[in-house]
Amino acid sequence: MTERHSSASVIRMVEIGQHVLFVALVVLSVLRSYDEVPARWQTVVLGGAILGWYLAGALRRTALSSARRRYLWLGVLVALWMIAMLVSTEYAWTGFALVFLVMHLLPVVPAVAVVVAITAVIVVVQVIDLGWKVATAGILGPIIGATVVVGLALAYRAIEVESAHRQRLVQELLRTQDDLVATSDALAAAQREAGTTAERERLAREIHDTLAQGFSSILLLSRSGLESGVDRAGVLAQIESTASDNLAEARRVVRALSPAELQSSSLADSLRRLGSRIAQQTGVAVDVRVEGTPTALDAPREVALLRIAQSALSNVRQHAQAQRAVVTLTYDERDVVLDVVDDGCGFTVTSVNTGAGGSFGLAAMRSRLRMVGGTLAVESAPGEGTALSARVPISVGSAL
Asked: Which of 104-108, 111-115, 268-272 has the lowest mean pLDDT?
């Protein structure tokens, strides 16, 4: 923006300088020819006509808004100057300013042709009037002067072209900036929408893996408590314990905190308590094993593995009709693998349709693992039990 204003200022200063130069040289021509012309009124009238015609066009830009008007105005001005040259050779001074004006208003080739013609008129008139004794000053002077003016005019044109070019670039940059702002707003809106969707998915997984599992346990326990010959006091104690755990989980889901189990113990200990609770509630023997050297995981990965174990054991309790389940947590150099294997009734993996028929749990598991760079594999067949394997990288770098 600063460069554009600088170029515009230079152009404006050149225009003002051109007006001042033209007026000054016309006045100089009138003064120098005043004592040489027999009829002094002629030079005054011609000087006034030239000056008046020039100012009429120069000070009214609308009068020169079209090329036709500019050429007509310039043609009349050149004609008046030629008449003045016939009256006095002193108007050669005005010819110097006229050359500059021609270079400013006409295209380069016609302008140079007119400049050559004006220079020739000056030289010829002076030679006719004063003879060949003006060879040095009267011939070389106008030629050198015209050459200098042409050079200055070409430099002025270059400044105009550069200014126009920079102005176009600035306008393009402003348009690009507006486009970028619009794109940024659209991207921000898309990110907000994606964040909202991701948060909804996260809450859906949390509710499924915690509250829904807890309510399911309470429902199963309450049904078993209605059967005859059951230790109802023990069942009520289990219902109370499960409801208490579920309430704690509900509070932590709302506060977006880590699971209560992981706040005070390791992932392996949390899995052992989970297996013990499931075994106590259902009678299914749950064996929890840890292999390899335990490695600290970040909270999102530990939460993911714990939720996968909770969901998998909930499926064992509700659907598998299993007698035994084995939960294995394996640490290797790059990954941590959670395997949950049961000896239940199994199912056909290819028949599971995501989101239907109670299979939301598997879809939620896969979605949760994708959030931490993990994968899920399920193997099962009718009558042959089920094996579920969740794998997560130990760190972000190992996921690449």
From this structure: 104-108
Final residue of a domain: which of 148, 176, 204?
176
Using the 3D structure, point to which of 176, 194, 217 is the last residue of a domain.
176
Question: Considering the domain boundaries, does residue 241 fall inside one?
Answer: no
Q: How far apart are CA 303 and CA 259, in angstroms?
A: 7
- Start-to-end C-alpha separation, the chain: 46
* 195 is a domain residue: no
Alpha-carbon Rg for the chain, nearest whole angstrom, is 48
Is 113 inside a domain boundary? yes
Tell whether 259 is covered by a domain: no
pLDDT tens for each residue of 283-327 = 889 999 999 888 888 888 888 899 899 888 888 888 878 899 999
pTM of the model: 0.41
Question: How crowded is residue 247: how many other Cβ atoms within 10 Å of its Cβ?
Answer: 12
* DSSP bridge partners of 379: 387
Residues near 346 by beta carbon (within 8 Å), at least 6 away in sequence: 320, 380, 381, 382, 383, 384, 385, 386
**Torsion from C-alpha of 98, 101, 105, 109, nearest 10 degrees:** 60
* CB of 92 closer than 8 Å to CB of 30: no
Residues spanned by the domain of 330: 266-400
Number of compact structural domains in the chain: 2
What secondary structure letter does DSSP report for 133?
Answer: G
Biggest alpha carbon–alpha carbon distance for the chain: 146
Local structure of residue 319 (DSSP, 8 states): I
Q: In whole angstroms, what is the distance from residue 309 CA to residue 299 CA?
A: 15
> Are 165 and 22 members of one domain?
yes
